[in-house]
Write a structure and sequence with these properties.
heterodimer; A: about 230 residues; mainly alpha; 8 helices; B: about 200 residues; about 75% helix; cell membrane (chain A); membrane (chain A); transmembrane helix (chain A)
Chain lengths: ~230, ~200
């Protein structure tokens, strides 16, 4: 009950969603690298301001390396290496605006806050439940695959059967998890039609408004330059 | 174990089942999306590969949730997550919506329990991914200009240009159909081999 007033994140989940939308528009329109770079500097300074210094440095370094590869290293390297990596590097640079804001959001926002934000934005309750299960299940898939790999290395499995041996346990455990999770969720009243309440409250503050304004400026810039 | 509630609207359990299988579907989908970046031919065949390998989660989801809206919800979730990763275009959005609606219609007509109906729905659903490479044909000039403006290497653009023939467009649409049929067939065999024994899937025909 300590942090009731503010959910504790630097930005509101809704602000993140808006910024994500803008990042998508920037990625689509692809007008100039400058807008993209400006965007990355903007988001990265947000990460810095929120106190995640390590993350900010890591991402900006990564972006610099990608730019270096794209414009200096790869044009000078032998063709075989270049053709393989150029596409990879190119795609990474293109996706960078979204990746950056997306991973910032993942670090900053808990699933509970995200669910609350989706409710406030009047998403359908059905979509909210399935989507939050989907997001929550990604780490479980990773774990499941490691377990299956461990089990596989204990037995000799022909490489032609590896895929089957990987997929079938994954499906089995997915189905079992679905059963268990539903039982737990029904017990906790997931099917109760009454509007759900939350301990957290979401409120937009100065950070959110500032970010929204800057984000919209980027949007305007994108359309003007087009 | 596999009790299916009779009410026609999606309940908590159905929603969770859809969520979990969408998660698996998305992971497989995403792997091939990334592989599609390696070479244009991989990109064009991508919908086919995805159909081949996602048959199992899709068919299992269908047999667990014989209700209206399951496919649509799976499509919306996939779309929303793609939106976060920034790989979503308007063309994909359109093909995805059409594919999901057609899939729902196929299941509605076949009455949700028929395996054949689910296979048809899966074919439609798989065709939704064709929206990813489709701009090569429908917005050819603009797409080529954009991609060369992004600093893509000449060899990539040249091979893309070579591949943008009408024949490849046919292949783009036939690959997911063949992939979906094969994927559904494989998953049917695996159902027999593993899941029916475990009592997870009822043997509906």
């Amino acid at each position: 009950m300590h942090h009731r007033s503010r959910s504790g994140s630097f930005l509101d989940p809704r602000t993140f969603l808006l910024l994500l939308l803008i990042a998508n528009v920037i990625t689509f329109s692809q007008i100039s690298l400058w807008i993209e770079m400006g965007w990355i500097v903007f988001v990265d300074s947000m990460i810095l301001l929120s106190g995640k210094y390590k993350m900010a440095v890591k991402w900006i370094l990564l972006f610099c390396i990608l730019l270096l590869l794209q414009y200096i290293v790869l044009p000078a390297s032998p063709e075989i290496i270049a053709t393989i990596f150029v596409i990879l590097v190119n795609y990474s640079i293109r996706m960078f605006p979204c990746l950056l804001i997306g991973s910032f959001m993942m670090r900053e926002i808990s699933l509970r806050q995200f669910v609350l934000a989706m409710r406030k934005l009047h998403f359908s309750e059905k979509l909210i439940i399935s989507l939050s299960v989907t997001i929550r299940y990604f780490p479980a898939i990773k774990e499941e695959i490691y377990h299956t790999k461990d089990a596989m290395s204990l037995r000799k499995i022909k490489s032609s059967k590896k895929l089957e041996a990987m997929l079938v346990p994954l499906m089995m455990s997915a189905a079992a998890t679905a059963e268990e999770l539903s039982a737990a969720a029904v017990t906790r009243g997931i099917e109760n039609p009454i509007k759900k309440t939350s301990l957290l409250t979401l409120k937009l503050n100065f950070n959110d408004y500032a970010c929204c304004v800057i984000g919209c400026l980027f949007l305007v810039g994108t359309f003007i330059l087009k | 174990m596999s009790q299916i509630s009779n009410s026609s609207s999606l309940k908590g359990k159905d929603l969770i089942t859809i969520g979990i299988f969408s998660s698996i579907y998305f992971v497989i989908n995403f792997i091939f999306m990334l592989l599609g970046g390696l070479h244009p031919i991989m990109w064009i065949l991508m919908p086919g590969f995805i159909a081949l390998f996602t048959g199992l989660p899709f068919m299992l989801m269908c047999s667990k949730v014989p209700k209206m809206g399951a496919i649509l919800l799976m499509g919306v979730i996939t779309g929303l997550i793609y939106f976060i990763t920034g790989m979503f275009t308007v063309v994909i959005l359109i093909t995805f919506v059409i594919a999901c609606v057609l899939g729902e219609v196929a299941r509605f007509i076949s009455g949700y329990y028929s395996v054949k109906g689910n296979i048809v729905a899966f074919i439609f659903f798989s065709l939704g991914m064709t929206g990813s490479p489709l701009p090569i044909w429908i917005m050819h000039e603009k797409f080529m200009a954009q991609i060369s403006g992004q600093g893509m290497p000449d060899s990539y653009i040249k091979s893309l240009e070579r591949l943008s023939s009408p024949v490849m467009l046919l292949i783009l649409f036939f690959a997911p159909i063949i992939g979906a049929v094969l994927g559904a067939w494989i998953s049917k065999r695996l159902f027999h081999k593993h899941f029916e024994k475990a009592g997870m899937v009822t043997n509906a025909s």
